[in-house]
Amino acid sequence: MELGLRNVPSGAGLGALTRNSKFSQQYATHGERLKQTHAEQLSTQLSVFQAALLEFSRTHAKDIRSNPAFRAEFARMCTAIGVDPLASSSNKKGSFWAEMLGTSVNDFYFELAVRVVEVCRRTREENGGLIAVAEVKDRIQKQDEKIGGTGTSDVSEDDILRAVESLKPLGSGFTVFELGRRQMIRSVPKELNTDQSTVMEAIQVLGFVTHSMLRANLGWDRARVQTVIDDLLSDSLVWVDAQAEEKEYWAPMFIGNANK
Amino acid sequence: MSSIFGNNILGNNATLVGSSSSTAPSIFPPLYDFPPFFTRYPNASTWTAQRAAWSSLILAYCKAHKLWQLHLSDALETELFHNAALGRRLKHQDAVEVLEFMAKEGQVDWIDESNKTGVNVWWKKPEEWGSVIFDWIDSTGQKGSVLTLYEIAHGDLTTAQEFHGMEEGMLKKALGVLVKRGSAQIFGSGEEMGVKFF
């Protein structure tokens, strides 16, 4: 045993062990220092970024509120750099974003969200809780015209979609979905089944459907067509025109937007 | 979807037909161009919404055209209930149901309760008309003077007033409100009926 120890080349014994640990300590310290430097740089960059944003928001808050095109661009920019202007607005501290923009953007979307909810609620008896985003936009604009509003009357569909999105944390049950080529807001917790969606899409394309149109074009039998139509009727998703040669089924959610 | 329905019976995309009314397009709601608006909805909750839409249209239409009364059989032939462009009309019995609802709301009252052939239309309530008339009397310094009903409704002095042309029975009802308030007194009868304002 003793012989063995003596034969160990110097530098590879216990001393080496301590020396190694000294190295690794140095590495660690160096790493720490690098990390710290990075953090400092990052925080400098962040504060520069924040300052720039603050400056930007101060200069443009008005535009953000009043100009829908500008607002959409701004929101797109936020998405591009990975910031959601509405994300943390529900926590009490108030979001970084709210501080930056003096809550004007948040307020804008929440106020709009309230109006979207009102439109959906008011028209629910008529349309069964499904309404086209374009229709919501039209109705909100008409309200503004009625009260002679000048202020925030310019609302885009993009704004409405974001406003609905901002309701999500509240568990509002408002969802956006695509029906054919239209974006719809659903304010009732009901899902359309496949047959119902098919019929609604057909109405969107054709304006209305009849029993025989559905049977001829989809190859459905009488009972299947009857079931779908009855369900849609009882949910107020379609209205019936009994004064045509054959009963026609129209969707109130597409009123005023037939050509869009 | 369009491929399935590409060659449908219609041959092209059906669209909602625009309102035929060029005179006062703002009166008619988008629903007016929606054919099913003219068919009573089969379930109650949606019919309630549909009925409310009809009531507001009727009030707006009468106000815009200064119609004091609707006689159902005539009115059903006008653009109010008949969308000629669509070839759709509200049925008599559905119109009666709408008017019954409006009567409950105080927006109309039946000229003949038993036969229900027509209504007075109150796009302003009798109380409001009373105030409008009284304001006019007040602002033109006619307190204390006596006017005949004819002068109020058809006189030269009132041509610019909103109540000009008001149907006689309705005018009496509006003035009745002022009598109750103690700001008018009605005397005489028939042609001679006059009213004094305080």
TrEMBL record, chain A:
Membrane disposition: Peripheral membrane protein
Keyword Transmembrane: no
Main location: cytoplasm
Keywords, ordered alphabetically: Cytoplasm, Endosome, Membrane, Protein transport, Transport
Xref: InterPro entries: ESCRT-2_cplx_Snf8, Snf8/Vps36, WH-like_DNA-bd_sf, WH_DNA-bd_sf
Subcellular location: Cytoplasm; Endosome membrane
GO cellular component: ESCRT II complex
Keyword Membrane: yes
Any one Gene Ontology BP term: protein transport to vacuole involved in ubiquitin-dependent protein catabolic process via the multivesicular body sorting pathway
One matching Pfam family: EAP30
SUPFAM superfamilies, sorted: Winged helix' DNA-binding domain
Subunit composition and interactions: Component of the endosomal sorting complex required for transport II (ESCRT-II).
Similarity remark: Belongs to the SNF8 family.
Chain's role: Component of the endosomal sorting complex required for transport II (ESCRT-II), which is required for multivesicular body (MVB) formation and sorting of endosomal cargo proteins into MVBs.
Name by which UniProt lists this protein: Vacuolar-sorting protein SNF8
Organism: Sphaerosporella brunnea
UniProtKB/TrEMBL annotation, chain B:
UniProt xrefs under InterPro entries: ESCRT-II_cplx_Vps25-sub, ESCRT-II_cplx_Vps25-sub_N, WH-like_DNA-bd_sf, WH_DNA-bd_sf
GO biological process: macroautophagy; protein transport to vacuole involved in ubiquitin-dependent protein catabolic process via the multivesicular body sorting pathway
Gene Ontology molecular function terms on file: protein homodimerization activity; structural molecule activity
Subcellular location field: Cytoplasm
Alphabetical keyword list: Cytoplasm, Protein transport, Transport
Transmembrane segments: none
GO cellular component: ESCRT II complex
Stored Pfam families: ESCRT-II
PANTHER family, per the entry: VACUOLAR PROTEIN SORTING-ASSOCIATED PROTEIN VPS25, VACUOLAR PROTEIN-SORTING-ASSOCIATED PROTEIN 25
Family assignment from sequence similarity: Belongs to the VPS25 family.
Protein's UniProt name: Vacuolar protein-sorting-associated protein 25
